[in-house]
Amino acid sequence: MSITFQERQKEMKRQERQRAKAERREQKKFANRAAKEGQSAPTTAPYGPEQQS
Fold this sequence. Notes:
mainly alpha
């Protein structure tokens, strides 16, 4: 049983959608991780300029 050209094209499109979905998932994971790090990092120094040693 041979695979037709149309079936190959359909399978290639399916694989491309799967790759794109995985890439979006990774980007979302990276963005969420960066957002969490941004929230936990202090925006100002813990001590004022006169208290630093």
